[in-house]
Specification:
By secondary structure, this protein is mainly alpha-helical. It folds into four domains: 9-89, no CATH class; 91-122; 125-222; 224-231 and 247-302, no CATH class. It has helices at 9-17, 20-34, 39-53, 80-84, 93-119, 125-222, 234-237, 251-259, 263-269, 274-280, 291-301. Helix 9 (263-269) packs across helix 11 (291-301). The longest helix has 98 residues, at 125-222.
Length: 302
């Protein structure tokens, strides 16, 4: 049968739409396999069967008796497409080389698997499984110990931090209590010392007041009015430096001088000598002075 590879496209389309190659393939396969005594009658019956079943269900071996069908796997459903030249893709040298390489690879793989089964003795799967289970148990125990050790380390670290904080708090409390005790003792000692000094100042002031009251009447009769010009010596007139005693001034002048001083300064002046003490103990200087204010002045002057 001539090839239709160079036929017109309309003819090629007609063959494909009406399944002409498949019908010819099925009929030809049936004739070659069954070899009927009356081929025409056989072809007529097969064509009627194809018309009843339809072209969509057409197979290449549907005209062969099921008992006579080969048991081998079929490689393709149609061969007449290449016979009539209806396939667009033909077998090329590249495809042949690729198929040959694939076949060689499969062959090598099969031989390698066979050699491995012969050369390598078979192993017991139970032993392998038991070995893997033992390794898994060892690894699991190691992970468990590591996890427990990590938690224990974290617990010990936290406990150390808590103990350190507690120790710092105890030290701080002890230091605070020690400071409180020290400050209380210092305060008591300061109060005692201040009270003792205050009592001494009060006693000293009372003694001074008693002396002042005794000497008040003695000095009142002996006071004389003396002018300042009498104390200017001849050495002062010629340019020398003379000594001047303020106690020789009149009582009114002395009172006027001490009136410009504060009460604290008056008390300090009374500590210069005996004559100044007598001058500062004049009654007119102490009129209107409260006892509390006098007590404070005596404390600061000392």
């Amino acid at each position: 049968m001539a090839s239709l590879r160079r036929a017109s496209p309309r003819l090629r389309k007609y063959f494909k739409e009406n399944y002409v190659p498949q019908v010819c393939e099925a009929l030809l396969c049936g004739l070659l396999v069954t070899c009927p005594e009356d081929p025409l009658r056989y072809l007529e019956e097969m064509i009627i069967g194809i018309m009843e079943n339809g072209l969509e269900t057409l197979l290449w071996d549907m005209c062969v008796d099921p008992l006579m069908k080969p048991k081998i796997r079929r490689l393709s459903q149609t061969y007449l497409e290449q016979l009539f030249g209806l396939d667009d893709q033909l077998v090329t040298p590249e495809l042949m080389i690729k198929a040959c390489n694939f076949y060689n690879g499969r062959l090598l793989k099969t031989h390698f698997y066979t050699w491995r089964e012969i050369a390598i003795p078979p192993t017991n799967e139970d032993d392998i499984l038991a070995e893997k289970m033992g390794a898994a148990i060892v690894y699991d125990n190691f992970r468990l110990k590591k996890h427990v050790l990590h938690h224990w380390h974290s617990y010990v670290k936290n406990r150390k931090e808590q103990l350190r904080d507690a120790l710092l708090r105890i030290q701080k409390m002890f230091h605070c209590y020690k400071m409180i005790i020290t400050l209380n003792k210092w305060r008591d000692r300061a109060r005692h010392k201040f009270k003792k000094r205050e009592d001494e100042l009060m006693l000293k002031h009372e003694l001074q007041l008693q002396k002042f009251s005794k000497l008040k009447f003695k000095t009142s009769s002996k006071e004389e009015h003396v002018f300042p010009e009498q104390f200017v010596s001849e050495g002062f007139l010629v340019g020398g430096i003379t000594e001047f005693d303020i106690s020789q001034l009149p009582k009114r002048a002395i009172l006027q001088i001490f009136s410009y001083l504060s009460l604290r300064d008056v008390i300090i002046c009374g500590q210069v000598n005996r004559s100044w003490l007598l001058m500062t103990q004049m009654g007119s200087l102490w009129n209107g002075v409260s006892r509390h204010y006098l007590k404070q002045c005596l404390y600061f002057s000392s």
